[in-house]
Amino acid sequence: MQHLRAVVDQLRGCRVLVVGDVMLDEYVRGEVTRISPEAPVPVLEVREVRSSDVRLGGAANAAANIHALGGRASLVGVVGMDDSADAVRKHLQEHGIGRLLVEDANRPTSRKTRLVAQQQQIVRIDFEKRTPVSGDVAEKLKREIAGSIPDVHAVVLSDYAKGVITPDIARHAIACARKANLPVVVDPKQRDFSVYRAATVITPNLHELEAASGPNGMDVERAATNLLPLVEGAALLVTRSADGMTLFRTGISPFHVPAMAKEVFDVTGAGDTVVATIALALGAGIAFEQAVELASVAAAISVSKRGTSTVSPAELSAALNA
């Protein structure tokens, strides 16, 4: 991996537009020492004054990763008219991320609250509405996307199936980007990958690949090969947990990178780190294979941390030197 050390510096200043489902990730930490007398459930005792922390999640975490890696991120998404939206804006401002958020009075800002005891997540509470955006909200999103394209080097579609990346929005964003000759990186949740056709690369994990290809005994290569004609030139970068990640392209032999992680504490947000790294690298003109190798190293750093996290250039450089 020594050949990647010079690549890290090339990410700096690259501008990426992230379009997708904006979320907040909240962690409430405490201890469990007893079972409730009211029901057979654990009692989480929250003892610290600062027992809760809130972080950017979903598409906002992808944007935060771009910023942390030395790039410049702009975020297009939807928020409600609530305290969570205010928290999103505050954290985006602190990260120096451009905010092009469309308000929707008919939905809350997506928020995931995780209750954690002794470093173990015991339950997650989701506040959200997953209805696909439409009408004025969808039209405002499309205008923000089209208006942002001239100022960036790459585009990320961060689809968490919360309603922002509809087939119409996906097609619009990909068409705008490709017209400007920009790479498009997709973190998918749709079962029909043809929604993302003509993107540069789609990054499913094993579960997402199986959902898109149908039951096939999880023969990864066969599933990816069958899907490639449906996505019209897009590559598939399949993230395979402990088995690393494999890049599939039409007419080219698969390119595989083994898993780099030595310790895995939490995979939350690791996919955001992968798409952020790939988008920055492709936007900076780095070769596909090197972008995948760099993303593998970044993912290994991400999963070694607890909770939603970002990766810095210094951490990347240290991992490459090691």
- Label the structural class: alpha/beta
Number of structural units classed as domains: 1
The poorly predicted ranges are none
Spatial strand order of the main sheet: 6-5-1-9-10-11-12-13-14
Identify the CATH architecture.
Answer: 3-Layer(aba) Sandwich
Task: Describe this protein's structure.
With 322 residues, the protein is α/β, with parallel strands linked by helices. The protein has a single domain (2-23, 55-110, 130-321), classed as Ribokinase (UDP-N-acetylmuramoyl-L-alanine:D-glutamate ligase). The chain has helices at residues 5-10, 59-68, 83-95, 135-148, 167-179, 206-213, 220-227, 270-283, 288-303, 313-321; strands spanning 15-20, 22-35, 42-45, 52-58, 72-79, 98-103, 110-117, 120-127, 154-158, 184-187, 201-202, 235-239, 245-249, 252-257. The strands form 2 sheets. It has a 9-stranded mixed β-sheet, with helices on both faces. Strands 2, 3, 4, 7 and 8 form a 5-stranded mixed β-sheet that branches. The longest helix has 16 residues, at 288-303. The relative contact order is 0.16.
